[in-house]
Write a structure and sequence with these properties.
This protein is of the alpha/beta class. It has 2 domains: about 5-140 and about 310-315, Rossmann fold; about 160-290, Flavin prenyltransferase-like (Rossmann fold), CATH 3.40.50.1950. Helix content is about 30%, strand content about 20%. It has helices spanning about 25-35, 50-65, 90-100, 175-190, 205-210, 230-235, 245-250, 275-285, 305-315, and strands at about 5, 15-20, 40-45, 45-50, 70, 80-85, 105-110, 120-125, 135-140, 160-165, 195, 215-220, 235-240, 260-265, 290.
Length: about 325
Amino acid sequence: MKLNRSDHRVETDQRLLILSDTKPGHVNQSIAYARHLGMAYDLVEVTFKYRFFKGLSYLADRLGIYTDWLFDAQLPTFEYAAVVSAGSGTYYANRAVSAQLGCKKIAIMLPKGYRYDFDLIVAQQHDAPPDLDNLVALPINLTYVEAKGLVQADAAHRYISIVIGGDSKRAVLDENMLRKQVEQIRAQFPAHDFWLTTSRRTSEVVENMLRTFEWSRAVYYSQEPINPIPDFLKHSDYVFITADSSSMISEAVSTGAACIEVLPLSGELHTQDKFSRLLMELTEEQCVHVFDGLCGAARHKIPVSEKLLAASKQVFGTIE
């Protein structure tokens, strides 16, 4: 399994070893942790040798038995400050590898089923984590946002951005409902320029509807698979995001100064699932406003870097 090394935004000689289960939603959170701390990292894939070994790993963890016999990973021989990983396919290997290397062990997301005595756990509040000294809870998914200049802003113009996702397990992105929302938004900002991006989950029907509007810049993911959201957040007065992706909303409330509006898809948002709890928490913190035809002024941001640095300094002693 290939070893990938990264020195992105390095501010310290200390390195992290990130274990990957190859799921982007997991490994990207581990990488985000490294980037918030300004630490370089190496990335190694890890898999259980057999599917039933994962079940066995829960028992081995309870018994305090840590062996690389249960999983495959090509481990480098460098020195690391910590092993970092997210996802149930990595937590056992994290504990085994950190013991082998003699370094700290850090779990991203709540390692349910395994013992919680990691050196640090970075969990999400909507997972209802326990109150532990070694746990820092974030109201959002762990993400790192960096503008890359994929869209260019003119200092003489002001911008409104609209970010479109797609259908989710909890709701459908209705073409007609979205059209009405876009019309309402544009009517409230007659002097602004409008930017748009769709995502890999946006349907062809919805993209075709959006093409009936004029945009100063439109990124249709089906034809231009890039992510301009960080640039939208940097340059826009308001960013409107459809209510189907906790990742996109997490990005929006962790950087920039834009007011964030969430566009309902269908039905009632305030139910008891994780996504709705996330929205309610962010609404209470004035991080987002649920668009109801009128705009709010929700622009508070979650200081993710500050929270992680404070918690990590207790683990490492110092980050030099």
